[in-house]
Specification:
single chain, two-stranded antiparallel sheet, globular, 308 residues
């Protein structure tokens, strides 16, 4: 994965912001994440046992903290290599590829097969089997409508592996049809009201696919309107409660366009601090009782983006 890739640039940006946090705070969250690592080298979600999806988030969080090195990175690489031998779902395969590239980039630990060309060709075949008639990608082979988020993830995988997108024009066209009059984007075409996370995914995917002339003001206005009195951002206009995922994706979109001044960054930071656990990790929202590795990545991301 080159330094110009979307994911590499994002993690570099977050790493620069996290460096501004106190050493004690970085160590607190780094130690918490490292304690989550399982014997096989993976990381769990909220259920026992290693999980590829959550492992990818844990590794990203450790990377931005500068902790994805040495034995923890080597154990993670071993876990990922073992998963290559398993028959995993496409969703897990996407997490596996992105996690593998993360470990390689941060620690130099090789994960993907030596015969990468042959393996990548099979991967492309699997991913393209999810292509739908509307030009997007479904979340499973049974899906008939493209998903904005899945289309973003697949674009991310192709870029991470330096594989030319098989049909970038159709993917771009699909994403542009997901825009709505409220300024945002929807997850599937049947929806009428936009969501914050599909909007962030669409903006990022279009950037990866080379679409740089989006009308930004309507999108920025849509995102800004979703910040609530808690200081965080809501997933859509029908959900009154802020959450860390939506807050992170909102800030990432705004920061990438130098538009953070259009919202209250200090309030967003306070929201993240309100769900930050004193023993390490972050909860999803005020209603949540437990921290997990995914939301800990988002929490660190919010602190980083509001520090830059």
């Amino acid at each position: 994965m080159t330094e110009s890739a979307y994911l590499a640039r994002l993690l570099m940006r977050l790493g620069q912001g996290v460096e501004q946090l106190s050493e004690d705070r970085r160590r607190l969250h780094g130690d918490w994440l490292l304690r989550k690592q399982q014997r096989d080298g993976g990381f769990p979600g909220r259920e026992p046992g290693s999980d590829l999806y959550y492992s990818a988030f844990a590794l990203r969080a450790l990377a931005v903290l500068g902790e994805l090195t040495g034995p923890p990175a080597e154990r993670a690489a071993a876990y990922l290599r073992a998963q290559l031998e398993q028959d995993v779902s496409v969703i897990d395969l996407i997490s596996l590829v992105l996690a593998a590239r993360q470990v390689e980039m941060a620690a130099g630990c090789g994960v993907l097969p030596a015969d990468l060309a042959t393996w990548s060709a099979r991967l492309v075949e699997q991913l393209e089997s999810l292509r739908t008639d509307d030009g997007g990608y479904a979340k499973s082979s049974e899906g008939h409508a493209g998903s904005t988020y899945q289309t973003f993830l697949i674009a991310l995988v192709y870029e991470a592996l330096e594989i030319p997108h098989p049909d970038a024009d159709r993917a771009r066209d699909f994403l542009l049809t997901q825009r709505r009059e409220d300024g945002g984007f929807v997850e599937i075409r049947a929806m009428r009201r936009s969501g914050l996370n599909p909007t962030a995914a669409a903006v990022a995917a279009l950037e990866i696919l080379g679409q740089t002339d989006l009308p930004r003001e309507p999108i920025i206005d849509f995102v800004a309107e979703l910040q609530n009195d808690e200081g965080g951002f809501c997933a859509n206009t029908r959900i009154p409660i802020a959450d860390l995922l939506s807050t992170f994706t909102a800030l990432q979109t705004l920061v990438s366009w130098n538009a953070l001044d259009d919202v209250d960054g200090v309030a967003a930071r306070r929201f993240a601090q309100a769900v930050e656990e004193p023993t390490g990790g972050f909860r999803a929202a005020g209603w949540d009782d437990d921290a997990d590795v995914e939301y800990s990545f988002y929490g660190l991301g919010v602190l980083a983006l509001t520090t830059l």
